[in-house]
Every structure is written in structure tokens, then in C-alpha cells.
């Protein structure tokens, strides 16, 4: 069984024949007029599971986007139309007597 799994991986297939792939996911037959065969129970279950997962991902994505919008609108800067005050001056460092604007 181990060697078969390694061979399948080397061929680009899943290690188990029951894993995802054309043998599992595609129908075995179709009608002569081209209509597909009815889905199997396993196919219906996988389709249902993937739809549920898609709906959950979509719901979580939408709630995350809504939370981002709420947070960004909550913390927008308020513009009063006045000029902003200058930044505060840094206190002089000990032992430093020269001003940054003066040359010695």
C-alpha cells in the first residue's frame, strides 16, 4: 500500500484512490444524448459540504469587512478648520549646550 501511494503521488494523483481527482469527481457514464448521469450520494454530499463552506466563508468575509468599515469610521480624524499647533519642542539633553540652529 505504501508503494502504491508513492507511485500515485509521483503521477500527480492523491495517495489514496478515494481522494480528490477525476476518478472520484467525474461521472462514470452519461446518457447517449449527452445528458449527465444523476449525481451519486457522495457527490451530493460533497457539493452540499462545499456550498456550506462557501457560505460560511462569505459570511465571515462580509462580517470582517463590516467590522473594518465600522472601525475606520469610528476613528477618522476630526478637522476643525483651524491650523494645527506646532509640535512641542524637545527638552535639551544634558551636557548639550549648542542649539541645533547655531553653528560654532
UniProtKB/TrEMBL annotation:
One GO term describing the cellular component: mitochondrial large ribosomal subunit
* Lineage, opening ranks: unclassified sequences, metagenomes, organismal metagenomes
Show the GO MF annotations.
structural constituent of ribosome
InterPro entries associated with the record = Ribosomal_mL52 (IPR034596)
Biological source species? bird metagenome
Pfam families the record matches = MRPL52
Gene Ontology biological-process annotations: mitochondrial translation
Q: What is its main location?
A: mitochondrion
* Location of the region described as Disordered in the Swiss-Prot/TrEMBL record: 1-46, 63-104
Keyword Mitochondrion carried by entry: yes
**In its keyword annotation, does this UniProt entry include Aminoacyl-tRNA synthetase?**
no
This chain belongs to the protein called Mitochondrial 39S ribosomal protein L52
Amino acid at each position: 500500500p505504501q508503494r502504491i501511494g508513492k507511485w500515485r503521488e509521483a503521477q500527480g494523483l492523491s495517495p489514496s484512490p478515494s481522494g480528490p481527482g477525476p476518478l472520484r469527481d467525474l461521472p462514470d457514464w452519461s446518457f447517449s444524448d449527452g445528458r449527465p448521469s444523476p449525481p451519486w450520494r457522495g457527490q451530493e454530499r460533497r457539493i452540499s459540504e462545499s456550498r456550506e463552506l462557501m457560505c460560511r466563508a462569505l459570511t465571515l468575509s462580509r462580517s470582517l469587512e463590516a467590522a473594518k468599515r465600522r472601525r475606520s469610521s469610528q476613528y477618522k480624524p476630526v478637522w476643525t478648520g483651524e491650523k494645527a499647533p506646532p509640535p512641542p519642542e524637545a527638552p535639551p539633553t544634558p551636557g548639550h549646550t549648542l542649539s541645533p540652529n547655531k553653528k560654532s
